[in-house]
Write a structure and sequence with these properties.
Blueprint lengths: L4 H22 L1 H26 L4 H21 L1 H32 L9 H12 L3 H14 L1 H23 L1 H10 L3 H42 L5 H11 L5 H18 L2 H28 L6 H42 L2 H4 L3
Protein name: AI-2E family transporter
InterPro entries: AI-2E-like (IPR002549)
Membrane topology: Multi-pass membrane protein
Amino acid sequence: MNLTAAQRQTLTWLALAAGGALLLWLLAPVLTPFVVGAVLAYVLHPAVEKLAARRVPRVVAVLLVEVLTLLLALALMLLLVPVLLKELPLLKAQIPPLLDRLDQTLAPWLAQFGIQVNLDVASLKAWLARVLDANMEDWLSTALSSARLGGSVLLSLIGNAVLVPVVLFYLLLDWPRLVQQAQQLVPPSMRATALGFLDECDTMLGQYLRGQLVVMGVLAVYYSAALAIARFDLALPLGVFTGLAVAIPYVGFGLGLLLALLAALLQFGSIAGVLAVAAVYGIGQLLESFVLTPRLVGERIGLSPLAVIFALMAFGQLFGFVGVLVALPASAVAAVALRRMRDTYLASRLYQGQG
């Protein structure tokens, strides 16, 4: 079978793409820090370029941007410190009466349905007292024991935590040269089309990132204000943490909700207080899913609110948690590709009915 030059070229590109996909699949376990570093470099390189344009030495600009980023990440984690410092002593003091109340309420209620339950409240109290009274040496020995059982996982986490900042530093330092080398790999005949497509994708992803930052800021203000209105003591740290953590879909919201419900149970000691906090988080989730993300992110990247919801559900179904993370950025790139394909089709001889 004789193939035309265009067909041979198409098959060559398909073979190269398949080989690249296979290589990525085989190297997936070691690529995580490099992929994370590349994503962070893409997000942070505009700040480095602005500093470099103001005659700041590039090494200094990279160090400033990376250190500030790490400090912001550390500050987000430290928002949990006042929560833990406040709640652990309350937890230790209030769990025994909570267990007594649970035993006095749950057992009679279940007895109405013929279910006899006898909670060993004394043993539960003794076990919880041992856990909460454990000193740092006990926690350290437990952690080391867990590390021996799953040492490869622990080493992987430590390795990634060290590698990601290193990879990020070198990518930011060499970003202009790397971009230029990547552009030179594109065949000259395809360079204008490919670079135009990538520029449009870059603009679209920039709109996505700006929209996501606005969503995070609005939610941080909402959760802090709404929890303060509910007379919640930890309104500010938990509100800001939840608002910023929504950048990680579902996980950030779930962690904020769990901490808030635990703190509400300890502070109010009643179902009404817990329900008030749960209502704040429920309204916040609805606000994020059906108003803020579709309007502030979806419209910026050219997707309707319905398309945003569908993209999150579809990518989550196909790729799990990672799919939810990349759903909107990938949809932004897909929207650019589909728009260009549509324009090509409308200008084609097939659409115009020409032979």
